[in-house]
Every structure is written in C-alpha cells, then in structure tokens.
Write a structure and sequence with these properties.
Strand 13 and strand 14 form a beta hairpin. Helices cover 40% and strands 14% of the residues. With 795 residues, the chain is of the alpha+beta class. It has 26 helices and 20 strands. The two termini are 21 Å apart. Helix 13 packs antiparallel against helix 14 (474-482) and helix 24 packs across helix 25. The protein is flat.
C-alpha cells in the first residue's frame, strides 16, 4: 500500500554495513534511471522523494516506505507506462533485494503492533451480552460511536472507555441486569389485533375484514394495535397480514364508474401515475409512545422508523423484527401511497369509499420481547441452579470474563451478593448487582492479550471475537483450560466448527460492514425526485445482498477471485427487479446464475457498493476509484490538496461526469493522482447512483466508461473486471491484510504484512478458497502470537 511519504536524508546507523552497501549499489542506478526524474529534489510526485531514501530497514518507518515501493513495482504502477520501462530481469532483482532486506529486518523486529488491552466494540459488546445472558438488549445503546481508523472500528488504538461512555454504560448495565434476573409472569406474549382492535385515524376505512388506508401524508391515515405497550426494551416481531391494490385500476378493469367527491381529485387523481403492475407496496413501521397512538388532525407521522416491509397484491403475511423501548407502540404507515391532503373518497355504485392505491390490513401480530427462555437464562443459571450461589457466581464470572478469575475478584462479587442479602435485598435484587457489576468490569469490557504465544485463554478470545464477534463458548474455554487450544491441529478443527456455526454470520456482517463500508450505506440518501424506485427497504436489501454474497463464498469455500467476478448473484425478488433479472420470486435470498452477457457478478456489480460510492444526485468516479484502490487493490491514494475546490454539480445536466472531471485533470497537483484514480471509477459508469444499469446519461449523452491502467485498458465494468482478475494476487493480499487487521485489532506492521502476504500467495498458488484462507490465518504464528518466537520465512 503506497502511503504519502516525504523522506529526506537523515543520519542513521546501519546494522549491516556491507549488506547496505551491496543494496545501495544495486538500487541507486535503478532509481537514477527510472525514479529520480519524478521523485527527486526538483519534483516529488505524490509527495514521494527517493533520491535520499535511507536503507536502515531496522527503523519501521523506513521499512514501510520500502515495502510501499516494492508494492508499486510489483503491480506495475511505477514506473508509469509513458516512461521507459525497466528490463524485467533488473526489476525482479530490485524487488527480490527489497524483499530480502524486509524479511531480514522482520526477523529481528520486536513485539510488533499488538496492544495488550482492547475494549470490545459496540457490536461485540451486544453479541456478548446476548450469548452470556440469553437476552437481546443492547449494552451499547446511546454510547458514543466507536471511532474509525482506515475503515475499521474495532482497533485497540481507537477503542477507549471515556467517562461519558462509562456513565451511559452503567445505566445500560443496570437495565440489562434488571431484565435478566427476573421471575414472575412471562413478559413474552403473542398479541393479535384485527378489525375492532386495530386503531386508526379518521381517514382510514373499515371494509369487510380489512382496515384500508390511502395516503402517506399524516396521522389521519395510519393504524396501530390498540392498547399495546412494550413491557420492556427489546426486540419484537411484527407480523402484518394484508395486501395492496390500486382500487382505481380494479374498478376500471370491471367497467365500474366512480366519481370523486372532490372536483380537484376528479380532474387529477384518475390520471395520476400508478404503481406498476406486480410492484409491491412499501409499509413503514414507526415506533411511538403508547399514549400517542390516537387520531390527530393534520399531524405528521411521529416517532422512529424501526422497520419496513414490502407487501404484494394478494393476501400475505410479512414479518419484521423491530427494536422497541419500554412503553412504546407502533404505527403502520403506507409509505408507497400518494401524499394526499384529504381522503380520496369517491362514489361507487351509490356508496362512498376510498378509491386510490390502497393498503388493506387484516391483522397485526406483535410478539416479544425476544428472550431465549423464561425465566431468562441468566436467572436460571444464577438463581435456579442446584449449585450454591458462590459456585454459580464463580462459574458466571468465568464466562463473563472469558478467562480464570483471581480468587480475590470472585470473593468481591460473592460479598456483593451476600451484602445485599444482609441489607434486606431479595435474592433477585442482590444477584442483579452481581450482573451489573460484571458488565461494568474492565475484565468484561476489555480483552487482555499480551501476545506471548502460550496464553490459551487469549487465543480462545482471539478466535471467538474474530469468527463470532462474541465470547468463547464452553468448548473453547474447556480447550483453553487444558492447554489443547495451542495446538495448530486443534485450532484448525475449531475454526471449521466455528465457521459451521450460525454465529459465523456475525463475523460476516461486522467484517463486511467495515471492509466494504456497508455500515455507511444509509448516508447520502438518493434524491427521491431523481430515483423514484429507491426506498429504505431496497437500501437494506442492497446491504443484505453483499452480506449474503460473502457468506455464500465462505460457506462454499469459493476462490477469493469470486469477489472480483462471479457467475452468480445472491438476490431476492425485489433486487431481481432492480437488476432486471427474471424468474426470481419471494423475499428469500438465493443463488441465481447469471446469463453470459450479464453486467452483474462480483462485488462491483452489487448495488450496495455502487450506491455507497455515489452521492445523492449522481455517480462519483473519483469516490468509486478511491474505493477500489483502498478496498480491492490495497493502494489508497494520497489525500487531495487542501486548496483544490470540489466539483460543482451540473444541475442542468448539460455536462457528463467525464467533462466535469476534466477540470481536475488539468491541474498539475491533481493530475498524477487522478490518473490512477479516475480510470477505475469510470469503469463503473454504466451503473447509476443506485446501481441500476444505464447506457445513457439523463441528458441522452452516451455513458463514458473507458479507462487505462497499468496492465490493461477497458470499456465498461466487464472489461475492467478482467483487468482486476489479472491482479488477483494483489486483491488476495489486500483481503488477507484486512482480515488480519480485523482479527488482531491493529494495523499491520511491515513484518506482519510479510506473513499475511505469504499466506495470500499460498492461497492463490493452491487455488484455495475463502474458508481455507480463514483457517490459514487462524493457524498462522502471527494469529497465534508466536510470530515473535519463530523466524519470519526467509527467501
């Protein structure tokens, strides 16, 4: 990865003078012939200066600079194609020489980049609470966001525990303890609401067994389950039974006349554009305070949008899981309906009724909150077990802290419980103090990892928070207790077991959220006037497609190059319509084979990536190019100069993106970077800002999708993917390094990158798959923390 470097002559001590002299004698003539012209004292393209670059590889910053140079030489980005290319033999000698010096320096490097203590990320905290206590409540609720570094938000260097966070966390822990240690009547309940128990605004109609609404404008047009109030915070399952149908079209098809009571609607509503045949309607679920579930005139729909569902033109049930706070109810809002100021009431065969695009709801079912059992699992383990209270507390702490707990710490928690009893608290109240104290303890919030290579408990945590994003299960802890987990054979067996567990999906969702940036897909919503087909549920499905694609590649152990191009997609019916792929029915994601001339396949044909790399009005070849360089090729460009003005949007649509970007290519300080960025972005120009395929821009001008990069030229995404496939080694290195960064919780040092790159090369040479790569990572000395007790492979 080429980083911005500005290295001038510095006084240094060489650990091996003769080796440095030989290296200088080989490198200096090569640099003078091919590099100094653009990276010397007169010019420093990309802020890189090589005429006085030191060769003391024992200094990490120098080694990283040489590693970046080697990367650029290997992939052919330097020297640029317009300059005289070096002889392949001479180039290989330089690359081999740099690699030899890097491996020699890595062999002598110390502890590396590991930080011995790392706080759990928000998602890891929540998953751990669910696995430990059997209750789906968020310890991370309202906490300050986890900071990011290079797209990752689970790195030790950024994860702290500041006073604001600790205060909010204590409040969350108190609530969770109260909900986890509780008896009495089961709060979980299935509640079904139908005609008579479904409340609604005054402009909603009761028709046969259905509640019918016609507008998305305000509170007069919504419905809700009468009397429901969430008994506590948690995850609830909502089932909506009904259908959508345009009553105008139905009446007209039967030859039945209708006349709107409103003259304005009579003139306009009959001609208004209608939902396409077969296109589902979008339902929005909004959380509100239970006391607010009532009709209000001209009041906007309040509350939080907590879920969405598509519903078709035949009676069906749609299920949505939503997170509610104690005391909240829900409102059902027909988001696809027209925004009508008044009800579209018409006279039909002597009756007055709503005539428009209508949502018909027959039943609303609310079940929850989601708790594994009743009383909750934590209550049963701590107060319902045959063990003594002290034995139960000790066992609980071992699981919560994920390693042996010092005796004095166990005694402190035992005393916390017994003191509560002595002060008159009930057993439940006293045990809640124990649970609350455990959730606030640094031993719960942090993983301790000295990287000694012989700490089986640390390895158990490293494995579980990598592959499950949660705590180790009893099998891992048992193997750690016996010391058997330190054996590579045992690790491989456990990795295969863990990847077959459904908790693996937590890793898939968390890693892709960070690597691909899927966690940010809600940012920069497309302009609804320009992209009428876009809605929040489609946005969610876009993200799910990329997640399910990753899971499929992992489960089937497909080659790493599948991310660059594939003969299939993972979609459901709604996405198939967005992609204009026929024959897909239903909400379930499934593997769908592509036609030979399909424009989809791989990550770069997925709407999530294409939407992420656009803004709300148009595509952005620069953003898309940077995304490919950072996440696919591992070669992030330098940040733009501070004095360069951003491109002004062409609101009239008279210019193409290529014409607008030509401004930057004319600026010398911008031209070098844009020469490497823009081609990759233009290769995706046939996809608009929400990932739909197009041949022309809105101004009818043909899409410009050409590019030229070291190693090939292309016209469109299909050609570009072939160029990327020729760089499969570079992509495999990038993915392997990002997996290691995520797994270890720190950016890789130059010596750690050598280990990662060797594993990537082996995976490619053996034609192994993604599952093989994860096994190799977990079994490696670097992951097992034995790297600094064994030698880095020398070549």
């Amino acid at each position: 990865m080429l980083r911005t470097i500005s290295i001038v002559a510095l006084l240094g001590t060489f650990t091996d003078l003769s080796a440095s002299q030989d290296f200088d004698e080989l490198v200096t003539p090569f640099f003078e012939s091919h590099c100094i012209k653009c990276h010397g004292d007169k010019k420093q393209k990309g802020d890189v200066r090589l005429d006085h670059l030191e060769t003391d590889f024992s200094r990490p910053e120098i080694a990283v600079a040489w590693q970046d140079i080697s990367d650029m030489l290997i992939i052919g980005d330097m020297p640029p194609e317009e300059e005289e290319r070096p002889d392949s033999t001479a180039l290989s000698e330089i690359i081999d020489a740099i690699d030899t010096r890097l491996r020699s320096a890595a062999k002598q490097q110390g502890h590396g980049g590991r930080i011995e203590i790392r706080r759990l990320s928000h998602s890891a905290l929540d998953n751990t609470v669910k696995d430990l206590l059997g209750i789906d409540l968020r310890l991370s609720a309202n906490l300050p966001a986890d900071p990011e570094l290079d797209g990752f938000n689970n790195l030790a260097v950024t994860l702290d525990a500041n006073p604001e966070m600790v205060l909010k966390l204590q409040n969350n822990a108190q609530i969770i303890a109260k909900r986890s240690i509780v008896s009495g009547p089961d709060v979980r309940e299935n509640r079904i609401y139908t005609l008579g128990t479904i409340g609604h605004g005054n402009n909603v109609e009761e028709r046969d067994d259905f509640i019918v609404t016609s507008s998305s404008r305000d509170r007069k047009h919504v419905m809700w389950p009468t009397g429901f109030s969430a008994p506590q915070n948690g995850l609830y399952r909502i089932r909506i039974e009904g259908y959508v149908r345009d009553f105008r079209t139905e009446l007209e098809s039967k030859g039945i006349e209708y006349t709107y009571l409103s003259d304005r609607y009579e003139k306009s509503l009959k001609q208004r554009e209608r939902r396409k045949e077969g296109e589902p309607g979008l339902i929005s679920i909004v959380s509100i305070q239970a006391s607010e579930a009532r009709h209000m005139d001209a009041a906007s729909v309040p509350g939080r949008r907590v879920g969405y569902a598509y519903i078709g033109d035949r009676v069906e049930s749609q299920i949505v899981d939503v997170r509610l706070q104690k005391g909240e109810n829900i409102m059902i809002h027909y988001a696809s309906a027209a925004v009508l100021n008044q009800s579209p009431t018409a006279r039909v065969q002597g009756k007055e009724m709503l005539v428009a695009d209508l949502l018909h709801v027959k039943a609303i079912e609310v079940s929850g909150p989601e708790i594994d059992s009743w009383p909750p699992p934590a209550h049963q383990k701590l107060l319902g077990s045959s063990k003594t209270k002290n034995e139960s507390i000790a066992d609980f702490l071992l699981q919560a802290f994920r390693r042996p707990v010092p005796e004095n710490t166990v005694r402190n928690f035992e005393q916390l419980y017994s003191t509560g009893i002595k002060q008159g608290l009930t057993e439940e109240e006293s045990m809640r103090n124990v649970v609350e104290g455990a959730l606030c303890s640094p031993r719960f919030l942090f993983n301790y990892d000295r990287g000694t290579g012989n700490d089986a408990w640390a390895l158990a945590n490293r494995l579980s928070y990598f592959l499950w994003n949660s705590m180790p299960d009893r099998e891992l802890l048992k193997l750690a207790e016996k010391g058997q987990l330190l054996k590579p054979k045992t690790i491989r067996k456990q990795v295969m077991r863990m990847l077959a567990d459904e908790r693996m999906e937590r890793f898939a969702l968390d890693f892709t959220g960070q690597w691909l940036g899927l966690k940010d897909i809600e940012l920069m919503r497309p302009d609804p006037k320009l992209y009428e087909d876009y809605d929040p549920l489609l946005e969610s499905l876009m993200r799910q497609e990329s997640e399910q694609f990753f899971i499929h590649v992992l489960n089937k152990n497909l080659p790493i190059a599948s991310f660059l191009d594939s003969e299939f997609v993972m979609i459901n019916e709604r996405l198939s319509k967005h992609y204009e792929i026929e024959g897909v029915k239903g909400d379930r994601f499934r593997r769908v084979s592509l036609e030979k001339d399909s424009k989809r396949g791989g990550l770069l044909g997925q709407a999530s990536i294409l939407k992420l790399t656009s803004n709300g009005t148009r595509t952005s070849p620069v953003v898309r190019g940077v995304w490919i360089l950072e996440n696919i090729l591992g070669d992030p460009p330098s940040p733009p100069p501070a004095d360069v003005e951003p491109i002004e949007p062409d609101v009239r649509g008279s210019k193409t993106i290529y014409e607008m970007l030509s401004k930057h290519r004319e600026i010398e300080t911008c031209a070098d970077c844009h020469q490497s960025i823009d081609p990759w972005g233009f290769g995706l120009e046939h996809f608009d800002a929400i990932g739909a395929y197009r041949k022309n821009y809105r101004n009818k001008k043909p899409v410009y999708a050409k590019g030229s990069v070291p190693g090939g030229s292309f016209d469109g995404a299909e050609d570009m993917k072939q160029v990327l496939l020729d760089r499969s080694d570079q992509f495999t290195r990038t993915l392997t390094e990002k997996l290691f960064t995520y797994a270890l919780g720190h950016p890789l040092t130059f010596s750690e990158r050598i280990v990662a790159d060797d594993i990537a090369a082996e995976n490619l040479a053996q034609k192994d798959g993604l599952k093989d790569l994860l096994v190799a990572i977990c079994a490696s000395p670097l992951f097992r923390s034995e790297m600094y007790h064994t030698e880095v492979a020398q070549k």
